[in-house]
User: What shape does this take?
Amino acid sequence: MPSVSLTVNGQPHSVEVEGRTLLVELLREKLRLTGTHVGCDTSQCGACVVHIDGESVKACTILAVQADGGSVTTIEGLASPDGGLHPMQEAFREYHALQCGFCTPGMVMSAIDLVEKHPQGMSEHEIREGLEGNLCRCTGYHNIVKAIAAAQEVMHGRRDTLAPAEA
Amino acid sequence: MYDFLYHKPSTVSEAVALLADPEVRPISGGQTLLPALKHRLDRPSALVDLSGIAELRGIRRQGDRIVIGAMTRHAEIQRDPSLNAAIPALARMAGLLGDPQVRNRGTMGGSLANNDPAADYPSAALALGATLVTDRRRIEADDYFLGMFTTALEPGELLTAIEFPVPEKAGYAKMRNPASRYVMTGVFVARGPMGVRVVVNGAGPGVFRQAEMEAALSANWSPEAVASIRQSSDGLNGDIHGSAEYRAHLVTVMAKRAVLDAG
Ligand SMILES: Cc1cc2nc3c(=O)[nH]c(=O)nc-3n(C[C@H](O)[C@H](O)[C@H](O)COP(=O)(O)OP(=O)(O)OC[C@H]3O[C@@H](n4cnc5c(N)ncnc54)[C@H](O)[C@@H]3O)c2cc1C
Ligand code: FES
Ligand code: FES
Assistant: This one.
């Protein structure tokens, strides 16, 4: 069986896998990081999005062996060790950007990559286009877009703290 | 998915040697191959990952051509400064394909090897008069696309690069399926060393040139020149997403928008 060596949320791992093992299976079943979800079998919903070397990818559409040597970040790796939330997680909480929460880990991971790729900031329209690979069946996206718009201000250093949501 | 062996060579010759076995397949971005394998549409004995072959990556200008390595990802094509300067319509096409996560993995070579009737790049390659370079020969786009999921590639032949002559003008417009984001009907227009070309994707079983629109745009490069030209629906795709007649109608609409996009 092939062996894969990779870093997940800063921790090095060496794991035996099959050729066909998907990265999401390695994360969920071997490393028990079940924050990364599987919502479809067609590479369309984005519930499984993680970062490999800083790029967002669908973990259900990459083999574990293809991630060999890479550095993977999952939703579990965002908060600081003392439990302080990443600004994007905080924004999702403040803006009530979730209902059932199934799509949320993938949304947050996609949103962080999106914000990092747009240092000049994004309009509401650009945020919506950037979320094309993530489906949410609950929220209607409205509060997700608001949360990302607020988080980008903190992530780009234009505000020290998150703008509070209107009551 | 059935299990398979996995190889990651670092040179084209090693990859081609492995691909001599008819049960072995190359994998580039995996954004088409892995969904197909999950559905057990194929059962390869081994996959050959092309991502470790440095010479298959990257975009460079070579005289009056832009050369794109087969393993270059959509996101790199979308952002590349030399391509954005030389053929902005092609860079924009890469940026409107799939979604950001598909673009971070999928490659131009994988898309052109697959030749999905609903894919984007085949229209650009044919309209721009591209040359498809493989491990053993050079194939002109005119001779490469042989219809639905079929190309001139032989079993085991590896696409290594795609060369695009820089056009004077080029533009693209498509109507996307709102759920899958694949192309329902698209039109790529170009004017350059190969004359004026109008290529339709998504509407038929494979990409095809629209001769009447090419003649009209050669005489008068403007959206009005194609506005009254009707595409016949004979042989076009009809499915749950749209009838052949609807796709035929879209050809004219997309052709007008593509000319506007080209400027
Ligand atoms: C949700 C989703 C939306 C998408 N939307 C679009 C869209 O709007 N437009 C569009 O055009 N595409 C779309 N795609 C497809 C995407 O562009 C794929 O990346 C592309 O079609 C295949 O490229 P790949 O690198 O992933 O190839 P792979 O999946 O790795 O390979 C595809 C096929 O080509 C073969 N192959 C790969 N590389 C080579 C090579 N160098 N030489 C010879 N054979 C090779 C493989 O063996 C396989 O048969 C979408 C995909 C998904 C999952
Ligand atoms: S589970 Fe990966 S895209 Fe749906
Ligand atoms: S919150 Fe339920 S799917 Fe998005």
